[in-house]
Each structure stands twice: as C-alpha cells, then as structure tokens.
Design brief:
The complex is a heterodimer of chains A (221) and B (580).
Chain A: E1 4-5, H1 7-14, H2 18-26, E2 41-42, H3 43-53, H4 71-78, E3 80-84, H5 89-98, H6 105-121, E4 125-127, E5 130-131, E6 147-157, E7 167-174, H7 178-192, H8 195-202, H9 207-220
Parallel strand pairs in A: 3-6, 5-7
Antiparallel strand pairs in A: 1-2, 4-5, 6-7
Helix pairs in contact in A: 1-2, 4-9, 5-6
Chain B: H1 4-7, H2 10-19, H3 26-63, H4 70-85, H5 94-103, H6 112-125, H7 133-150, H8 155-174, H9 177-189, H10 194-215, H11 231-265, H12 268-286, H13 295-303, H14 310-329, H15 337-355, H16 367-382, H17 386-397, H18 403-420, H19 427-432, H20 442-448, E1 462-463, H21 468-475, E2 482-486, E3 492-497, H22 502-505, H23 508-513, H24 516-519, E4 521-522, E5 527-528, H25 533-543, E6 547-552, E7 555-561, H26 562-576
Helix pairs in contact in B: 2-3, 3-6, 3-7, 3-8, 3-10, 4-6, 4-12, 6-7, 7-8, 8-9, 8-10, 9-10, 9-17, 11-14, 11-15, 11-16, 11-18, 12-14, 13-15, 13-16, 14-15, 15-16, 16-17, 16-18, 17-18
Amino acid sequence: MGERMDITGAARLLGSPESTVVRWARQGLLPCRGSYPELRFERSALERWARGTGMRGRAGQAARVDYQDDLLAAGILRGAVGSAQPTDAAKAIGFAVNQLRDLPEEARQEITDAVMERERMASTGLGRGVALPHPRRPVERWIKEPRLSVLFLEESLDWAAIDGQPVSTVLLLLSPSVPMHLELLARVSLALHDSTLVELLRSAPDAATLLERVRAIHRED
Amino acid sequence: MPGARETLGAPLQRVIDLFEAREERWGTLLVLAIVVGLLAGCLALGLHAGTERLVHWLAPLAAGPGGIVLPACGALLGSWVVVSLMKEPAGHGVPEVVRAVCREGGRMRPRSIVSRWLGSLLHVGAGGSAGLEGPIVHSGAAVGATIADRAHLDERRRAILVACGVAAGIAGIFHAPLTGLAFSMEIVLAEVSALSLLPVVLAAAVAAALAQALHGDSTIFAAPLELSVSSTDLLLCLGLGLACGLGAVLLTRGVGWMDRLGGRLNLGRLGAPALFGVGVGLIGFFVPKALGDGYSLIHEVIAGDLSAGPWLLAGLFAAKLLASSISLGSGAPGGVFAPSLVLGALTGALFHRVIEPWIPGDQLASVGSFALAGMGGMVAGTLQAPLTGILLVMEVTGGYGASLALMATTVTSLLVARRFERWSIYMRVLAEAGDLLRPGTDQRILADVRVSECLDDAVLPIHEGMTLADLVRVARRTSRNHFPVLDEDGALVGMLELSSVRELLLDPELARVTLVGTVMQAGGARVSADATLAEALAQFDAANAWVLPVVEGDRFLGLVSKSTLFGIYRNELRLQTQEG
C-alpha cells in the first residue's frame, strides 16, 4: 500500500490540471478508487501509470526566473565595493575583478580575459558616468551566484561611452547563467533610473551607504 | 469520386446504384471484390496446377544424380525472374504485402501479379522446400491493388481490395473462405471494420466456390477429413501446443539464421539461392520427402500411411526444417505457410507416436487427428495467426467437433511462440525496419511527416555581435518572437526569444551595451530538415522549447514551432483515418 493522495495531489504528481485528472478518472484511463469528488489515488500506481503511458505532464515547462529577493543587494554583498585610480579602462577592469574575495588566481585571469573580450567588441559605457563591464557569456565555472563588483574611480576615465562622458563608476557584473544575467540587468536598469542613486554614485559612497539606497529602491518597487 | 463510372458499363452502373449505400461507394467495392475474388482464385488454382505439372515433368531428372542441382537451378531461375527480370525485392511475399498496406496505402505494381507467381513456380516445382501460399497472396494482393487503381479508389478502399485478393488467394488454395478471411484480417489488414468485412468475405467465398467448381469436394489434402477428439485429448493438446510452439520458434529462427548467413557470406541476391539450393538438393538426395511444398507428405501423415517410428519422424522433421530454412532463408521466392503445415503435421504425428504407449488405444485420437491439430498449432505459432490456424483445420475437416482441442493447441502454441519471438516470421523484417506502422496510428504519422514539411522560412536571422538596440530596429520589421542567431560565418549559434529580453529593450542605455550573443539561448538545440516528427518532438522535449531552428548540416533553413506541428499532425490524422 503506497501513499494515498487526493485529486490535488494526483494533479501535482502528474503535472496536469485537476480537471484533466478528473476526466481521466471518469473515462477509466487512470487507476483510482471511489467516485467524484471523493477520488482517491495511490502514488506508486500513478507513477507506474505515468511511466507506462509516457505521460510527461506539463511540469517540464520552464518557469521564468522570478525572484522576490533583492538580487542587487545580494550581488553587492557577495561582490565588493571599493575605489581605485587606474590609468585606463583595462586596468580598471583588472582592479574590479581583483577586489573580489575568494577567487583563485586562475579564476581571476579567466574572468578578466572574458570581460576584456567583451569590452573589445563594444564599449560597455552606458552614459551618465557609469560603465557595465561583463563577460561575453556567463563564466559558469567560477561564478555560481550573481556577484557585483562596484569600483569608484578617483579620476574618471575615458570609456568610449555612448554619450562621450568619462566614466567614474564601474559596475562589474558576473552571473552564473543567461536568465540570471538578464534578471540582474533588469535590476540594474531599475536602479539606474533612480536619480538619487546616480547622484550617490558620483560621491563614491561606502558599501553600507550604497546598500541602503539599493535596498530602498528595491522596497519601493 | 468518378472512375468506376467510366470503367464499367452504364447498365452495370445502374445495377450498382441500386445497392449504393450513400456516398460510400460500397456497391462498387462489393462488385470489385467479386472480380478480385475470381481473378485471385484463378491465379491460386493455376499456380498449384502449374507447379504440379512441373514436378511431374521434372520427376525423371529429379530421380537421377542431376536431382542434387535441380533445386539450385529452380531457386536460381526463380530468383532471377523476381529480382532481375521483374526488379522486385526478394522475399516471401506476405511481408511485402503488409508493408505496402502499412506504408504505401496498398499500392502495388501490376507486375507483382506474375513476378512471384512465376518465380515460385520455378523454385518449388524444381524441388525447393517452400510453399506457394505466400506468392499467391502476393499475386492476389497485386490484383486487388491494380483494380483499385483502375477504379480510382482511395487508400482505405484500396487496402480493402488488397485484403480481398489476399483472402481469395488463401481461400482458393484451401477451399476455405473463412480461413482466407481470417488470414487477411489477422495479418494484412489488422482490422475488421464494417466497411472491410463484407467485401473480403465475398471475395473469399467466390474464390472458394471457384475452387470447388473445378476440383469438387476434394481439398488440397486429398479428401475431406475426420477429426475426432476426446477429453483426454484436450489435455494432450496442451502438450502438443507446447511442442508446436517450440517448433514454430525453431522454424522462425532457422529461417532468420539462414538469411543472416546468406548476408554474411555476401553471395548476392542470385548467389545465395543458387548455393543454398545445392544444400537443399543434398538434403533431398537423402530425404526426398523434404523437398517441394510437402502436401503429399501431409496426405501420408494424415491418412496414417506413414509407417515410421519416432526417430524416423524426428529425422523427417529435422530434414524438412533444415531444407525449409535453407530454401526460405536464401531469398528464393516461396512462402512459409506450407512448410509450417508440414512441420505441424510431423509434430502431431511424432507427438502421437510418443504418447501412444502411455494411453489406452480407444481413448487416443488417430494420428491423423493429431497431425491436423499440429498443423493448426504450427500455423498459429509461426504466423502468429491463431484464428487462421483454427479455421483452416476446421474448414478442411468440414467440422467443428474438434474446435475445443484445436483452440487449446493453437492458443498454447501461440503463447509459447510469443514467449520467444515477439514478431512472427512475416513481421520480424518489417518491425526491424520500422515499417510495421498501421495507417492512422500515432507512430505512423510521427514517422511519415518530415520537419521540412513544417518549416517556416520567412524568418529574419540576427547576428550575435548586434546590440539589443539594433535588435529593436529588426524587430520592428517583423511580428515574430523568435530569432535565430548566426555568427560571422553564417553558422547557427543560438536562438533569441524576444520575450526573454523584453524589459531590456525598454531601456535604451542598457540595450545599447548588451549584445545579442550574451543574452541568447546558446547552443545546439536544433532540428534537421529531414528529421521525422517523432525525432523533432523528442528534440523539443529535450530543449524545453516551443520553437526550434531547422538546419541542413550547418546551414540555417528556418524555424519550426510546436504549434505548427500540432496542426500538421491533426491534418495527417484526418487524412489517414478518413471514413468517407
């Protein structure tokens, strides 16, 4: 005797709507006991049935990445916030990578190369003094969760940005997957629409102040 | 649908119209079924008469030393007719008919009416250890197909006329209309429907009546037979069924083994029959009874005229088994039906011989009865057609008294045979080639339709080096959501679904610094243009996608969507199961 379940449980197990499960039971296609609405199912019988009929249900459909969490804040916490005075964009990227903790040398090299490769294809200077360097494809080997390295430049650098303005804030974005990267970009986009935050960035704040504003933006959303 | 109205005369047409049931063209089908029955019946009778003549004519040659190479000559000539002259594939005949019905809507070439007919006449007439039933079935089926084409019938009705030809062929050989019906339903049509039943019965009855008119009451087994069975025999029939089942497996595997041997020796389609024919000739030199279709041997066994101890019977069985395996496995034209009847009769006789000492005389049925039951059992096991086996014995003995015993034997034999061989000797080749797909089934549709038929090539590919801002400009020109992404050599590197980057597109700053290559779904998920629907669906499942790119090698051809596939599947299903 296996685990007993009701219609709801059966529907979840089979990855199909409850109305479908009820219809199958009524048509004698599904092993069950009792009659509607007191239909009772048994787990192992259902599993055997699903295997035998090749039913895959609709549980396989990919759900969109939908996070309630404050990805940006979490990313900054896992990343780093700091300042430096590099002489050019390439060195700035190097600093941004190196200020991340817990990364072996091999990882730093690989990530830096990937980010530089992307930077060479087209500038990541957004405008309004912000640059968004990132690897061309997610570096899954080393990055298991989103990490943001925020580097404030004591002297702004030319970054061949769209608006021609020099860059004073470098946001290095590292994601484990494409969907996560897209989600992170969306959060960044939201944050950069906040004029208070953009102003704050120019002042090269410390981590705590930055996080406070980021969290506030997330709460408002 | 026009057609019959042009080919048949106006008065006949008026008669047909009297019986025409709505728009189903049923009347036409019935008339044509009668025609097919007559023609197929004639072919059946003609082949038997012709083969008998040839055997008689060659008898002096066969008796001498030349008899060793005679079967080889017959096999070679017969194969030459089928393969080289008529350019048809070698084979027993029945699998070809089944394949035609399953995959080609019952289409057969008119030359098939004579190809195997002539080929088997030469092969079996010269001593080849095979039967004429398969070739007759093939001829009859071709007759049905040809007439169906002349009358411009649709796929379903053509398949029915093919079944008519098959049933008529069998019915004509054995003077057994129900057996013909059972054979065509169990093996060829694999369905019995209101539409198909009556025409097939009609064709079979006509052929049997024709045979009756020409040969009187005598059947192929010489005289109407008795089959008496008592209650003890019922239990014994289970044992006989077991023996028949095992014998059926031996025959099926023997033929398959010889077939593979021929392939491995790489003798070619004419070399194998010739070489193997020498083997048959050698066997025939020592055991002449193992040659030919074996009906005279069956007569002897049934009549109890074969005075042989169990060892001799076993030896005869082995010789016939070997000879038939070689003849059939060589690819020379001939069928497996008659050899299984012979082996069944021998099994029955052997069983009787073995059991005899243990059962008091008056409680045991005659050796002839056991031989008949064995025949039914062997047919059930080899062809995996139990109904055919049962009805055959019932009809040739003209009685139903032994029905219980027969059923016990045939069903046991079938169960035993299926335990070892999933497919009958007819179906094995088809199943392995993936051709055993009945029309209107899910598997058939998924195997028939190719991705190239569902292709949408009005698609705008994009480049992986483009920014999302560039993409916005492209997206304006189309209403599509899915874009294939190509690299600078034009090779496919991924897909981009617009909805996945929707939010980014709304932010011009970010859109300008985000490359298509970074946010696309990279990788290999793609479908080949000549893939079947089944393969494509497997790809969709594995990639968890709704739209996939279609490629030919590396070249991008277009997109295919699951929703388009569904529409095409539905159309195909309607087409293949049309009632009207």
